[in-house]
Design a protein that fits this description.
Elements: E1 2-4, H1 6-16, E2 26-29, H2 33-45, E3 49-51, H3 52-57, E4 81-89, H4 93-104, E5 110-118, H5 120-124, E6 130-134, E7 139-141, H6 149-153, E8 155-158, H7 169-172, E9 195-200, H8 207-216, E10 221-226, H9 240-252, E11 256-259, H10 262-272, E12 276-278, E13 283-285, H11 300-331
Parallel strand pairs: 1-7, 2-3, 2-4, 4-5, 5-6, 8-9, 8-11, 9-10, 11-12
Antiparallel strand pairs: 12-13
């Protein structure tokens, strides 16, 4: 999965300024994500900006004190060189609608269309006049990751640390807790779309009150997986949550794990060779990243080598160890563990705003 953070977007925009036409007089952002790019460009290039509606109606946003050029209603009183920009173009649906809207307005300006990131297909079809980087699908960006319908449907999301605080009533409420919900526990985030798998480290006995809490806040999901009463997820003390989340993430076929702990994300990513997103640090974690040292494998060749190692050697070896461990528990009369629900694999699609 190709991921770009806001920090990377900023660095890319700075690099992009040198390649854009030098005669741009106005930057126009395509709502909503394109406004982020337009704002950055307008500041770095010291140019006025507006949105698409503003361009059509002749309205320009008020510039700051550092801008000494022409602005306001007089700026668009004569033909200008305009750059209409979005954060990304994938299939071209949003940019196509913007082009038609501006064309219908019959404006006198010279208008170029641009996007920071485009797919190879968008490049080949020349859907924009200017772009900075080609990013193939599947891809996701920090600024819309938590609102991407397709991604959320293919995600394992931890309740504790993502939907609610770690030190919430989920940790302290006993079995006598209200069956109508967990009073006083306010959500940190409510998903806009249904989530594929919600993971809770609480016992199976906590399922009713957890379901009540989710329902009271309108959280829609396909499966709720509790860690369970038993402690058989791992023989390694202190890592039960890591192994529980890793096993469900792997067996479900999900595309990503979203968790609030950077340490958990780093360990799960290393175990499975799959990405995990930390909501606390807003980082996409890949194998090779240390929660203490913050090291990342930036080289595509190094990342490819890590993926090969995990798929060919580590994952099969871990699977074999789990089979042996469960067999021993079964023979000794212990209770086996469910490997979690499995849903058919679906291709992750981009969602443009």
């Amino acid at each position: 999965m190709n991921y770009r953070s806001i920090a990377e977007l900023n660095d890319t925009v700075v690099r992009w300024t040198a390649a854009l036409p030098s005669d741009i007089e106005l930057v126009v952002g395509v709502p909503r994500s394109g406004l982020l790019v337009a704002n950055l460009l307008s500041m770095y290039l010291n140019l006025p900006m507006t949105d698409v509606d503003g361009l059509v109606s002749g309205r320009v946003l008020r510039a700051g004190a550092r801008y000494k050029g022409e602005s306001g209603s007089t700026l668009l009183s004569r033909p200008r060189n305009v750059l209409v920009v979005d954060d990304s173009v994938s299939y071209g649906g949003q940019m196509g609608r913007v082009r038609r809207e501006i064309a219908d307005a019959d404006l006198p300006h010279r208008i170029d269309y641009a996007a920071v990131y485009i797919t190879p297909e968008a490049r080949d079809e020349r859907l924009v006049d200017h772009f900075c980087e080609v990013v193939a699908r599947p891809r996701v960006f920090e600024w819309n990751l938590m609102h991407n319908q397709s991604l959320l449907a293919r995600s394992c999301i931890s309740i504790e640390g993502v939907l609610c605080p770690l030190d919430s009533a989920f940790e302290s409420a006993g079995e006598e807790a209200s069956s109508s919900g967990l009073d006083g526990v306010e959500p940190l985030w409510i998903p806009d779309h249904p989530v594929g798998w919600l993971l809770s480290t609480q016992s199976e006995a906590s399922r009713p009150r957890t379901e009540d809490w989710l329902a009271s806040h309108g959280v829609d999901y396909t499966r709720l997986v509790m860690r369970g009463e038993h402690e058989g997820w791992s023989e390694r003390a202190g890592e039960k949550d890591v192994w529980f989340k890793a096993e469900i993430y792997e067996s479900s076929g999900a595309d990503i794990l979203i968790d609030g702990s950077l340490e958990v994300c780093c360990k799960v990513a290393s175990l499975l060779g799959k990405p995990a997103y930390c909501t606390t640090t807003r980082e996409m974690v890949r194998p090779g990243m240390s929660p203490k040292e913050g090291r990342r494998l930036r080289s595509p060749l190094a990342w490819s080598a890590v993926q090969t190692y995990h798929r060919i050697i580590r994952i099969p070896r871990l699977a074999a160890k789990r089979v042996v461990s469960r067999t021993r528990r079964y023979l000794s009369g212990g209770v086996g563990n469910s490997s979690g629900p499995t849903e058919p694999k679906a291709e992750l699609a981009d969602v443009e705003e």
